[in-house]
């Protein structure tokens, strides 16, 4: 099973620091819970490897959970529709949040806790490409 977190950067100083928003991040850490290792992806590399809904590939190569301070309503809906749980982190450190996830100490986001950009609603028809990017 894999979990995914938005991170600040790819270098050693930034790879363990979570970004503030899942959608706006340029880099992502994917942690394999069985193997205990991390892989770092750019946004385009993540989409190529795992797909838009993070479920591309075999059963062992799909993301089952996201840990992110903020997630957009439509992304939240897509993730939930694909049985991917979305958790709120406790602090900014990736390794700390992985441990908290394993210990089942993180709380799931709900629709009231996701960030809604101005002008966006909870359905595709209420968003425009100018207000939601």
Care to count the β-strands? 6
Query: Averaged pLDDT, please?
Result: 85
Helix % is 10-25%
The CATH topology comes to Nucleotidyltransferase, domain 5
Structural class: alpha/beta
Strand content bin: 15-25%
- CA-atom Rg in angstroms: 14 Å
Distance between the termini: 29 Å
Largest sheet, in brief, is:
6 strands, mixed
Give the spatial strand order of the biggest sheet. Answer: 3-2-1-4-5-6
CATH class descriptor name: Alpha Beta
Unreliable parts: 125-133
CATH architecture: 2-Layer Sandwich
Total number of helical segments?
Answer: 3
Basic shape: globular
Topology as a string of helices (H) and strands (E)? EEEHEHEHE
The CATH superfamily title: Dinitrogenase iron-molybdenum cofactor biosynthesis domain
Count the domains. 1
Topology:
Elements: E1 2-7, E2 27-32, E3 37-42, H1 43-50, E4 63-67, H2 73-81, E5 85-88, H3 94-102, E6 107-108
Parallel strand pairs: 1-4, 4-5
Antiparallel strand pairs: 1-2, 2-3, 5-6
Kindly summarize this structure in a few lines.
This protein is α/β, with parallel strands linked by helices and 133 residues long. 20% of the residues lie in helices and 22% in strands.
């Amino acid at each position: 099973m894999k979990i995914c977190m938005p991170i600040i950067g790819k270098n050693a100083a930034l790879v363990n620091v979570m970004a503030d928003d899942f959608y706006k991040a340029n880099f992502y850490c994917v942690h394999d819970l069985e193997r205990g290792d991390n892989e770092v992806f750019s946004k385009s590399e993540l989409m190529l490897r795992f797909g838009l809904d993070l479920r591309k590939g075999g059963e062992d190569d799909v993301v089952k959970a996201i840990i992110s301070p903020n997630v957009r309503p439509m992304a939240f809906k897509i993730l939930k529709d694909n049985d991917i749980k979305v958790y709120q982190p406790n602090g900014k450190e990736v390794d700390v949040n992985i441990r908290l996830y394993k210990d089942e100490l993180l709380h799931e986001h709900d629709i009231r806790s996701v960030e809604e950009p101005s002008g966006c609603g909870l359905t595709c028809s209420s968003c425009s490409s100018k207000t939601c990017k």
